[in-house]
Amino acid sequence: MKISLEAIKELRNLTSASIADCRKALEETSGEMDKAIKLLRQRGLEIAAKKAGAAAKEGRVEAYVHLGNKIGVLLEVDCQTDFVARNGEFCQFTKDVAMQIAACNPIYLARENVPVEVLDAEKDKELFCKNHCLLEQPFVKDPSITIKDLLGALVGKFGENIFIRRYMRYKIGE
């Protein structure tokens, strides 16, 4: 099947994946945009899983102060190279995640960080994790994807280990 250049450009704008990856995904999904987006996200998560063991000694500390100066966030996101740490998309990712933390107040970074006794006390474990684990939360700018999906897409694009190491949220009076 012949894939149009416009479709490749549209998919690239939506996912930030490479032109070759966009073309391949569209060919594999017979030109269906939604399926191609899901395929690229899945590939990003697979690449992220492969890169998880690589040392990440570079990164960025992002500071976000919400309008009105009542909520602030400090966030550390690590990567393998300083080239990625200075990249505009990486910087935008850290800003977006810091804003997510300010807006949604996640208690835990990931499902693995939730104490067993806390999770066992919950009736709906999936809903609890979706509400209280940063990586499980829907992204505030695009609720159709999670922070984990967003991170996986970034890892897939740059081809190196990127992870959220830690964060702290401050709110006046808490």
Order of helices and strands: HHHEEHHHHEEHE
- How many β-strands, per DSSP? 5
The amount of beta strand, in percent, is 15-25%
| Count of discrete domains | 2
Contiguous low-pLDDT stretches (5 residues minimum) are none
Q: Please state the structural category.
A: alpha+beta
Based on CA atoms alone, the radius of gyration comes out at: 17 Å
CATH architecture of the largest domain: 2-Layer Sandwich
- CATH fold field value of the largest domain: Tetrahydropterin Synthase, Chain A
Write out the CATH superfamily name of the largest domain.
Elongation factor Ts, dimerisation domain
CATH class of the largest domain: Alpha Beta
Q: Give a short account of the largest sheet.
A: 3 strands, antiparallel
Overall pLDDT score:
88
Query: How would you classify the quaternary structure?
Result: single chain
Q: Tell me the number of helical segments per DSSP (H or I, 4 or more residues long).
A: 8
Q: How far apart lie the N and C ends?
A: 58 Å
What percent of residues adopt helix (DSSP H or I)? 40-55%
Query: Based on CA inertia axes, which overall geometry fits?
Result: globular
- Walk across the major sheet and give the strand order: 1-2-5
